[in-house]
């Protein structure tokens, strides 16, 4: 049994991790920390876990996280940076669901997150935890910077196009029109996330620059091995879970004869959690609700030179906690889908 | 033109008052105060009011509220109590949408609201602003304590039964099973009101004792002229606007032959904002959305001795701001429905 | 492995059965019938099941249901009545999620469902599939009439009160104020269930008499061994899944000293799927979403003589398909919770 | 007073027309037809109109529509084509909210709508009812083909760019990523529009070709006086009302110095129903709910060569019935905003 600890389990990625790990046959939950909820039974905060998770939140100072085999950080940026060095030194594997180890360039991190990066050596070592791209590196990693929710859809959506030897599309002008359920904003008391504000409503946000933009550009460039350009417009959906990304790319004249459907099917043929749907499909967010599957469809409206990719995931699962468990399975040599067999809940 | 001011216009009853007053043909909005938003254009906070309301929020200290003809308080309890004496002394009529002048017994107020009542003389003078019950007193009032949202549905729902000379139902065991949209909780950043918490969910709350219970008991006793007993269980609906109260009363043996439908139709025959629906109807909250109408239906399932009343209102209109405008019209001798002709928005 | 077939799998209880059975370690799904969708891959109708359920719908005439060990009917009333005799004769156990075998009185069935009951011998034999009440009879049953969604909450909510030797409450005047998500209406194209009609809205329905009333009265009387009287008012919630029943009972003078919390905890101490919450709790529908758990809380507002019970379940799981699997486990001598370990999905 | 009739008033654009016309100071509603609901009081079908609209539906054969001054068609395609010639011959002005008179090319109409166009002379005469583009032609029109809901956002969003003498953007590769509330699908009993299917979900649809594509291309080409190319991907939002279009255009090298914000503000300076928001704004659909206002914002992420326009409207008002009233006002020489002063309902 893998002894697992969670730092910062009072948010949505935290409770989703608890749901998944409590059902995982090879995991023993041993500690969950919260500065503000020390002593509270987890199931008092999250009644959905009554009789299933018997842990109590404990103050980070009291929790013996260094006795864990793996520790997940489901925390605001800065926390994993501060606490992970000691854990890694103690031989604990660390999976950070936050942003501390995503951007490889410390200056970029400082620009987008407003704080200096204090662990540049660890940052250099950290592996970006996107299994479909980095599986081999994850296998031997000590420290994982897990992708953000939007970036997972954008990278897995564009990857087959960019991973070819020569460009198929105008890589300088990629467009990602994305929309996320409100849970992506976390369990924070903010007026903009109130039901009375966010339900029965739709809007763009972060148009000037969202933190998931530099992360995605970095990831896409790593896949392509070439510079890319991306316009990313996120929108807020009046619902809890689910991300839908509508991706646009202009096909280059030389690539007009490409069979893109076949390209995608081939690229993801062996992936347990990526479902390339049949031609003509329009994936729905609910078709992946509460599961670790990402579905996508390839379109070329009117047979023209604009390629359109439709990508859906559950932002709390494949976009966060499920991907974290998938990565853990890889790190510990377990079957990659162990404990992740939940069938999507629909309707 | 009536010069109107609003204290505390940054919440939902505030913005709804602005919507209604900006369309009122006899009202000139002259001031709206907010300590935190001093100087901000109202339409910057509420883009729905762009090009329709040109006011800016001003600090209470700067706003010349005493030059208004009427001032509405859309504030947490305590504020109207503190500021209204000076306004009333200056000849300004005051309509408090909050709780300061609802409970006639200062001890009850202190028990439920956790603060002493400092204006007991004004409290004695204040008129409870439920037009269908207190129309004549409202006409000459200087100070109005406007009913809460739930109490309006419960009182107008039970009133025809209780207003008879002798009891028709077991008045000691009335039951009100109510449900409200989340906007009733106000525009406050609280975790429980987040879309991710309150949507796709339903629960009771305040079962031990909700502040609208003593207010309603007081009102029902005033209508009946006798003691009454009430069990009130509020619930939270996964939607923004609307209150639905399902009221239960046991018919007394002597009253089994009563034609309750006729009783209700007669009682409300001349009311512009109360719609007694035909037998067999099930009023929907959306049928009154964004309007000042309250609809109700009278049922007697299986022809037995349990009477069931179904009552709906828009909690922000008839349950708050619309009722405030209705009361203002009465106080200033205007047609009671002036500026309140909005047809419900459906779907 | 238990060979399981489903008749009528194109509705919501059907797809939920598929989700649960596909994850059940002792079940092999062998057939699913649909007259209208013959030949269609199940996962083409329900993309949430892609790569998890490989069956195709087949015409009832072609499906060899008699080779199954158990057949579930997720059909409108009348279908199970027509098809189950042949299956039972062939030694197949039948679990009817519909209404054909719920009401023991054929005349009552005809009155509420508008068709004669053609299988009165089977009706007499059929066991009402509520495990917490009928576990022993279920163990040896050949034919199960599974409870409706609302009746499960009402019966499990009132059962501890009624199962005592002498009455504790006024059993002639029980009240059930219930509310259900729209999935309870099924996957039928009806205007009233459109998102544009049912979302952002709340209303009562079926006030004159809902089909779940006679079923519940029958069940409660069986539990009490005495006549009972019930007023049942269902309401439609603007959400997909979840039922919340608020139950009211007047405590008899002799029973005023009863410790109702203890009574409920004792009654359900050994039940795997009933969670009696601590005093003061208000169970939320989302706390049981997509799981087979029913949670309830016991209240006595103001310490008076009105007892209030708050009960929640997922109408598609404990209210239908999960309960069906629970019953199947009992019938086949499996652990009662096998394949039903899903943790509620929240948020 | 203008005598107005409505053909096909049982859908959502019909009830919204009724809401607006019943509040219009210069309109007298004289007839509303429905083949299926002959004799039914309008307020029995739409309780929101109780005590406000006293008409009954009448069979088209009985209604004397030719005595109206104006008749609105809120019908499926084909109906206005069949009935409008006689009305126009009788001197009645016709405003078709449906699709019969939108596409100027009869062959295109037949291709997209699957029926031959039988009124090609009227089609040639019909004016496309987009006031901000066609105001002068509308003034003297006898027959209006009112724009679709999506096309209104796309055309008003792109118009200032295209209306310049020389191209500013790559007009062959415009992209419109749009999302609409479910009311856009109408009040039709279809499984895909059920709350249980469409709520808590998001997906693209009509990717292969939506009927609003040829209409929009035709309109944009008329504005530009040049051929244009458009990729249009509509999506379905889990809410009732509101359309949000996110428009993308690549700025041409020669136009990189353009002040697009100023261009848009200038273009719409005198428009009563188009609100160009300040730089950096992200318009919300709720900010126009139940009103005839369209709001838009101009963005240029990262200062690059991709221009992004965010456009919102209420699909039932500016996207349909409100625009119809605006057009009627123009046709009858009334102030353009008469009866359209509703302030958006928010929250």
Q: What's the alpha carbon Rg of chain A, rounded to whole Å?
A: 20 Å
Domain count of chain A: 2
Number of strands of chain A: 13
Largest sheet of chain A: 7 strands, mixed
Count of separate DSSP helical elements of chain A: 11
Under CATH at level 1, the class of the largest domain in chain A stands as Alpha Beta
Poorly predicted regions of chain A: none
Average residue pLDDT of chain A: 97
Q: Under CATH, the topology of the largest domain in chain A is which? A: Dihydrodipicolinate Reductase, domain 2
Structural class of chain A: alpha/beta
User: What strand order characterises the main sheet of chain A?
Assistant: 8-9-7-10-13-12-11
Oligomer: homotetramer
Provide the CATH superfamily of the largest domain in chain A: Dihydrodipicolinate Reductase, domain 2
Q: Approximately how much beta-strand content do the residues of chain A carry? A: 15-25%
């Amino acid at each position: 049994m893998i002894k697992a600890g969670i730092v910062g389990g009072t948010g949505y990625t935290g409770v989703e991790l608890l749901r998944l790990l409590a059902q995982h046959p090879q995991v023993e939950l041993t500690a969950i920390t919260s500065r503000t909820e020390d002593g509270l039974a987890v199931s008092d905060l999250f009644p959905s876990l009554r009789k299933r998770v018997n842990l109590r939140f404990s103050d980070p100072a009291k929790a013996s996280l260094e006795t864990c085999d793996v520790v997940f950080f489901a925390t605001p940026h800065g926390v994993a940076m501060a606490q992970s060095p000691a854990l890694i030194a103690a031989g604990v594997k660390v999976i950070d669901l936050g942003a501390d180890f995503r951007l490889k360039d410390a200056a970029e991190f400082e620009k987008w997150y407003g704080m200096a990066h204090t662990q540049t050596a660890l940052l250099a070592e950290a592996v970006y935890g996107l299994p479909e791209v980095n599986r081999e590196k994850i296998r031997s990693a000590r420290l994982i910077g897990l992708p953000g929710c939007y970036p997972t859809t954008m990278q897995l959506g564009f990857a087959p196009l960019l991973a070819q030897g020569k460009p198929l599309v105008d890589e300088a002008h990629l467009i990602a029109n994305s929309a996320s359920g409100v849970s992506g904003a976390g369990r924070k008391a903010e007026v903009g996330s109130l039901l009375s504000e966010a339900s029965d409503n739709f809007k763009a946000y972060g148009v000037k620059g969202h933190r998931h933009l530099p992360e995605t550009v970095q990831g896409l460039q790593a896949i392509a091995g070439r510079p890319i350009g991306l316009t990313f417009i996120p929108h807020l959906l009046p619902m809890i879970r689910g991300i839908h990304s509508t991706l646009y790319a202009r096909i280059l004249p030389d690539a007009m004869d490409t069979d893109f459907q076949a390209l995608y099917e081939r690229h993801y043929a062996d992936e347990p959690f990526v479902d390339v749907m049949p031609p003509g499909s329009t994936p729905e967010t609910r078709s992946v609700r509460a599961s670790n599957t990402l579905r996508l469809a390839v379109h070329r409206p009117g047979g023209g030179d604009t390629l359109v990719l439709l990508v859906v995931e559950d932002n709390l699962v494949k976009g966060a906690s499920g991907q974290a468990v998938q990565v853990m399975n890889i790190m510990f040599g377990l079957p990659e889908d162990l404990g992740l067999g939940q069938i999507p809940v629909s309707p």
